[in-house]
Design a protein that fits this description.
The chain has one domain: Nucleotidyltransferase, domain 5, CATH 3.30.420. A hairpin with a 4-residue loop joins strand 4 and strand 5. By secondary structure, it is α+β, with helices and mostly antiparallel strands. The strands form five sheets. Strands 11-6-1-2-3-12 form a six-stranded mixed sheet. The chain has a two-stranded antiparallel ribbon with strand order 4-5. The radius of gyration is 21 Å and the shape is globular.
Length: about 350
């Protein structure tokens, strides 16, 4: 039942709690594995660090939406990035909600990437529990596996791999790069990484940000919404990638690898990760960003992001085409043949 406008404002203010985003992992992995050409030491370090991040996903060999397992060296694949709050002040253990979700599709032939931001408050069906609620609850109910199943259900896209990170990687990578330059759209005051109110204060304008400041910009939505926040996050991705591939950042790869590896969990083996190198070896990542349109909604007094079904279908179709997934028409053909015999 819709609530009055004043109640909505009050409720939404209460909902403005800690938000964390971890969306730079794909470009950072590409940069890190480019270290293979930078020196044997860094290559060996990457192998050691990233191999220790591997987690078998309950014996899951492939997505149920795939006829056979994929190989990123030869096939188009998808990677789901899951951001969780791993701060000292918020020790939730395994029972935590995801704070950020992004799905990337990678086309092996064209070496292109499409990245869609999934608002954390999106109202979707969660197979693990059998009902609709916020998509970020899936991780609480069943970790990465339940989150993957929910994204597959929502977007009708196979999720081949996942990368789960905590926010320390976000800050550490940016600090290892000596900061990034981005446009701050408006004056903002946010918590720092340990929940200290108003610790980060930024003025509007194009400027250099450190890890804590970039985190504040990435998670704020006090003056807009999840969609605009997703766009800011995508701009930060581009800024991180631009900085990471610059010539004077090569010496930072050691720290970058350490920052990512110490804060990552994934079902990708080191060999599978290495195959991603070809997407960024030339110092350029061909990346298109997408978002999921919708509108604010309240159900029983709880705020949700109601996805626009038509726009959702359009994004799903775009990702399917990028993955070159062909619809199974054999069933339709069989039905038509049967009809013709009647």
């Amino acid at each position: 039942m819709p609530l009055d406008r004043d109640y909505k404002r009050i409720t939404k203010r209460k909902k403005r709690r800690r938000r964390v985003v971890f969306f730079l992992i794909l470009p950072m992995l590409l940069v890190a594995f480019s270290a293979a050409g930078y020196g044997a030491y860094l290559y060996k370090k990457a192998e050691t660090v990233f191999s220790s991040s591997y987690q078998d996903l309950d014996g899951r060999e492939k997505s149920e939406k795939r006829e056979k397992a994929v190989d990123p060296k030869n096939d188009n694949v998808s990677v789901l990035f899951i951001g969780v709050d791993g701060s000292d002040s918020r020790d939730f253990g395994e029972k935590t909600r995801s704070d950020a979700l992004m799905l990337a599709t990678l086309n092996e032939k064209d070496k292109t990437v499409k990245l869609v931001s999934i608002p954390r408050d999106s109202y979707v069906y969660i197979p693990e529990v059998g009902y609709e609620t916020k998509i970020n609850h899936a991780h609480y109910f069943g970790g990465p596996k339940a989150t993957i199943e929910t994204v597959e259900e929502s977007l009708d896209i196979p999720v081949d791999y996942y990368v789960k990170m905590n926010f320390y990687a976000f800050m550490d990578v940016i600090d290892a790069l000596d900061g990034i330059k981005v446009d701050v759209p408006y004056e903002l005051s946010e918590k720092d990484a340990e929940d200290n109110n108003g610790a980060i204060h930024l003025q509007p304008g194009y400027q250099k940000l450190n890890g804590e400041e970039a985190l504040a910009l990435a998670r704020t939505r006090k003056q807009d919404n999840d969609i605009e926040r997703g766009k800011r996050q995508q701009e930060i991705i581009k800024a991180v990638m631009k900085r990471a591939v610059s010539a004077n950042s090569f010496s930072k790869y050691d720290d970058i690898i350490e920052a990512i590896g110490n804060n990552m969990e994934t079902n990708m083996t080191f060999e599978e990760m290495k195959s991603l190198t070809s997407y960024g070896l030339n110092g350029k990542l061909d990346l298109e960003t997408l978002s999921l349109a919708g509108e604010d909604n309240y159900i029983d007094g709880t705020y949700y992001w109601s996805l626009d079904e038509e726009k959702l279908d359009e994004v799903s179709e775009t990702l399917k085409q990028h993955l070159e997934i062909k619809e199974d028409i054999s069933m339709d053909q069989s039905t038509e043949e049967e009809d013709s015999l009647e």
